[in-house]
Amino acid sequence: MQLQRFCSVLLLSTLTFCLAKAQKPVKNTGNWPVIEKQMKPWTRWWWMGNAVDEQNLNVVLKKYADAGLGGVEITPIYGAKGFEKQYLQFLSPEWMNMLHYTVNKANTLGLGVDMNTGTGWPFGGPQIKPENAATKLITQQYTLKAGEKLTEAIKVKEAKQDFAQLQALTAYGTNGEVLDLLPKVQADGFLNWSPRNGSWDIYAAFAGKTRQMVKRAAPGGEGFTLDHLDKNAVDVYLKRFSDAFGGKPQGIRSFFNDSYEVYGATWTPTFFQEFKKNRGYDLATHIRELTSKDSTSEHIARLKSDYRETMDELLLHNFTQNWTNWAHHLNAVTKNQSHGSPGNLLDLYGAVDIPETETFGSSYFPIPGLRRDAADIRNVDPDPIMSKFASSAAHTGGKKLVSSETFTWLTEHFKTSFSQCKPEAEQLFLAGINHIFYHGTTNSPTNVPWPGWLFYASVEMNPNNSLWPQAQGLNNYIARCQSILQSGKPDNELLIYWPIYDVWNKAKGLDMALKVHDVDEWLHPTAFYKLSKELSKSGYSFDFASDRLLKQSTVNKTLISTNATAAPYQVLIVPQCEMINPETLDQMIKLASNGAKVIFQVLPQDVPGLNNLETRRAQLKASLAKLIFRDGVDGIKQFKIGAGLILLADDVQKALKAIAIHRETLTDTGLQFIRRKTNTGKYYYLVNHTAKDIDTELSLNESGQVLIMDPQSSNVGLAAVRDKKVRVQLKPGESLFLNVDQNGTAKTPWVYLNKAANSINLNQSWNLHFTEGGPELPDDQQLAKLVSWTTLSDPKLQAFSGTGVYTSSFNLSSKTAKEYVLNLNEVDESARVWINGQEVGILWSIPFQARVGKYLKAGHNTIKIEVVNLMSNRIRDMDIKKIQWRNYHEINFVNINYKDFDASSWNVMSSGLIGPVSITAFN
């Protein structure tokens, strides 16, 4: 039996590994791709206290699969109080049995399984003893004058630093002398040295410990945070997993690492050696500058740039690549959130198999009727340019998947509608993300009273959510989108260099963690960001490139290839930047010489860092001197070199036009887009996030037969094309795919909604019957007019969260129009519709409309609308009544501002079908 289980797990792991790696084409039946599990949305799946068992796992996994999820990502965290006897120790034999059961059961249901390589975050645990824990630089200063000796041992004064190691002792004289005093320190810690003259400042540098513990750790996962910069520490950390796995694959598709939140980890014991090897000089002689509070010194900025570059190398090689290699030996891949790391995000994302970004908070969209309560707004909105760091690493590396932790703190608890989720997910798709992970789903046993176990920062994508009966609406939409966005290859014409050395060249601070929450500091003020925003708005598509990526890039005829399996780029753009490595500039010139087109917004002026500074400056100057530009039109300067061309133009868009790199003019309408390239054409994904209806003819940069594909309804039809322009109709909040196929043979035309004829207002009385939810089912209602059910006389309705079914009828005098559109107008919050006993579908988001002509008949018609509301009113009622529903270890339960959660003062939220409901005929 054990052998049989192992063989099945091995087979599943091998298959999923191949699936993640393969660049296979989309399979088609008819006009829409077959949906595979990785195309469906996945979810982060919290195992609270590891209190899981086969019976409950069997129940919830089936619910997830039935609702349209494609997979789960196991992340064990702290548990609920009172259930300690059910806790399992992380990676224990009992825990491993539950993992095996989960993988096998998920496999039978068509679900995939990912796993956090740890519990909570960041990586750490009981196997991390102090010597392998996250490390920080501690410095102490002493002063000696001629003839004086230190009367105290040189030991760390900071409390709880028993494992701190003295690594450097450097003396600075008044005349600029620098002495290494480390050899003068005796075994007892006393300094055997006295200055002969002058006054000396002495700096001691210790490798201390941050003492950070794993946040939100699960039982068996508690302990110190790992020193990610040290290979030996990473190996020690991973050995615990290898031992628990017996060194064999476990059927895990991907191992996951959350955003880098290792606070104050500014050092590692090997830092001095690595710095000297890679930067060429001894950092130990610069302790005074490294710890200086001077935030204006150019010299200190250069020193810290070198320090930050060394941090980048250590994190890339010792952790990211090391961890990925370990996963590959288990026939699994890695999925990593690199943001927040003190390194080059593009390279760190690119070193794993599935780069993952995240959205935190909510974005503003001017879509009419879209709720965005002031109390739900975080300090920083999700930024699509930030998300493009992850997608760029995937695209330039030829990786099929790029994922996102999605909807974290999208709204306050229990208030998130599917309508609010949709544009946030679409914004990710537009940024190149094609593998959505919900944040998230808490595993909750069936015997735990409603609302079950919940995670404190989640939008509660779980079966206890009152919206869950209609979750398929959102899930199927995302699956259809991702089925196309994971097909073919990305189609971005521009490659934009990210000037990381300008970011690193700051005298303030020490390590520089590039966080999602700090984009106002390190991203938004830059010329790189401004240019990227302008190009995107104007209709250009692009990815970002690092120095390392450019070093390995080649030219095929005129196209820049960043990877053998990646789509090539037509031009490299270098935004205005101050600092650049001479080697990077030379590579840019080499690419141009080999046939590429390169555009400099402004020529760089200097080199980063301190090592061989004047020699490298001379090298940069010599390379720049080779660029002999001649004046061209519109102020664009040109330098022809080899088979290629280098342009110098402050107005990059003018330069692009001069070399016939064309933008997509469709963005002039307000539409946003992203393209995917296929063997016979392209897919355009179009989204209307404006406040206006768009009915227009679009010019596309690709020609061929155009098929309109609606990912919400799955309707497909041949687009109307006139004078090479494609007609599209999109209401605010809607999206479409255009499949431009040079070999297209489709014949069924898309039905456009041209001239509205008459409308039928469904103003007959409605019967309202409640089918599921709580705290108790309200009585049936007879409605002369549609209103929020919370305003009706039954007192149960203000506290009710669940499902209400509306039924009514209407007459259609004749059925002669080309199409009929049902408009529900206001729905709080999602509706499933039947007409004449036939299911129309789930209308789960704004504008709550559907084409219903095929369901109608002349004469008498019936309509049934099943509506689900939010959890908020029921939670409000429980808090008013002081019913205990949250009782967890660790953080327990907090609101969006990380204060104790209390819904008792909330207003009752509108619920049900508000309408007015109408059906409009279109000729």
TrEMBL record:
Residues 1-22 form the signal peptide. The keyword Hydrolase applies. GO terms for molecular function: hydrolase activity. Residues 756-879 form the Glycosyl hydrolases family 2 sugar binding domain. It holds the Pfam family Glyco_hydro_2_N. InterPro entries: Galactose-bd-like_sf (IPR008979), Glyco_hydro_2_N (IPR006104), Ulvan_degrading_GH (IPR053161). It comes from the Bacteria. Keywords: Hydrolase, Signal. Transmembrane segments: none annotated. Gene3D superfamilies: Galactose-binding domain-like. The keyword Signal applies. Belongs to the glycosyl hydrolase 2 family. NCBIfam families: rhamnoside_JR. This is Glycoside hydrolase. It comes from Pedobacter riviphilus.
